């Protein structure tokens, strides 16, 4: 028995060090990290809840690499995300729940079942909108009797989750006809934020701000803009312009703390003008193009292949608690 264990350990050691070991190598590495005799103390202490934040972080780092078109980094980031799947599957196997092959089988079975026009006898001669409807109908049958908003993951970024909730509600007709009505609602919610601020009730202010953000997500969806992408772009723009303020002050031997709002505001406007000039120069040479913030999850678009929370038509008439 001892001899068999040594043979097994020798084979696993060899696999772990094999650069061409592929997926079996990664699974062996994960098993070794969780081995009570030879594993890593940190990895052994982890559970589903403690690893979940790292899974989200790695998914965001994949998105960040794509956003920056950092293709050299993307390979590594995708590997990090894959390792998260392997980690969860290993913990599930130890708990007797399921193993990595079950994870692979589940997604393979789902993709085949969700694409009868590719793997079955249905016609491929369908519009994107018809395909989206078929996708949603298949998912609805899989879920069985469920509420309209069931299955939209709680851990999604809040703006993304807002869009998906609104899309679900819109499919059953709970929707504003156009962006005009959403803009009116945005104005209404902004007034309610001011009223809540004047009341000096922190809970009321937080609630009204939440309603306002929910309507902003709704407006973005009606305008076919991904609000997460739009906000990421705004964050990048703010970072870039503030860095220019720091550079200009540093050239004079000063820091922002040694400046004042009036001066930094003037420098901000200078950075803004610089950005606009660069943008105009790019536009004159690159020609017309698409926008980075275009929403992928809008009416008539392709269904969300990544999860059971696919998007659809835009809009919901009221924000929760928005009145």
Estimate what percentage of residues fall within beta strands.
under 5%
Find the CATH superfamily of the largest domain: MazG-like
How many domains, in number, for the residues? 3
Main sheet summary:
none
How far the N terminus sits from the C terminus, by CA atoms, comes to 71 Å
Q: How do the helices and strands follow one another from N- to C-terminus?
A: HHHHHHHHHHHHH
Q: Would you give the CATH topology of the largest domain?
A: Helix Hairpins
Number of helices: 13
How many extended strands?
0
Please give a structural write-up.
With 323 residues, the chain is an all-alpha fold. It folds into 3 domains: 2-111, Helix Hairpins; 151-226 and 294-323, MazG-like (Helix Hairpins, Orthogonal Bundle); 234-286. Helices cover 67% and strands 0% of the residues. Helix 10 packs antiparallel against helix 11 (202-222). The radius of gyration is 25 Å and the shape is extended. The model is unreliable at 289-323 (pLDDT under 50).
Brief sketch in words of this structure:
With about 325 residues, the chain is mainly α.
Secondary-structure map with pairings?
Layout lengths: L1 H15 L5 H12 L7 H5 L2 H20 L3 H24 L5 H15 L1 H4 L8 H16 L14 H14 L7 H21 L2 H21 L4 H24 L10 H26 L37
Helix pairs in contact: 2-5, 4-5, 9-11, 10-11, 12-13
Characteristic key phrases:
323 residues; Helix Hairpins; 13 helices; 67% helix; 0% strand; disordered C terminus
